[in-house]
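Ticket #4471: structure output looks truncated?

Reporter: J.K.
Steps to reproduce: submitted the chain below (176 residues) through the standard prediction queue, then opened the result file.
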Amino acid sequence: ITMKFKIKFADQIVGALSIFAIAALVFITFFIASTQKWFVKKHNFFTTISSANSVNEGMALQYKGFAIGKVKKIALSDDDNVTVHFYVLDEYIDRVTQGSIVELSVSPIGLGSSFIFYQGTSSSINVDNSYIPEKSSNKAKELIKEGKVLIAEQNDTLNTIIGSATGLVNHIDELI
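Returned output as attached by the reporter:
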């Protein structure tokens, strides 16, 4: 005698579980997309730098320690400069005012680099796809000299440690 196992509503159970799995997949996709800011409007800008050694696509654009955007694309231009295309998230666009500059800051001991944004003092916002000068460029130096950009004082930990060590060595020399 052979026994067949039969589930009365097998097709309905499989169908319900399939619909549940698809709904869960859609929910998870939208959850991930919202945390990664896929649906947030992005405002595009660009700058030019001399070398792409320390910048990469996907690098965060930092403003006062907050990631306000990312580097989208890096390209070599016809005049042998590197063009860096980046975006700023919509919630931070009010900080991208006339006179703003960016800086590619590289650690002197090879601990990485960061792409830093400095806000201009103007109240008018830069239009999308406009040029924002890099801190070492002549245009940015003019803006800094004229006081049209807010550059926060940075605490360089390495220089602070070296300064403290130098002071300690000087005190030891005096004691000896």
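Triage note (M.O.): checked the attachment and the full token line is present. The radius of gyration is 27 Å.
Status: closed, working as intended.
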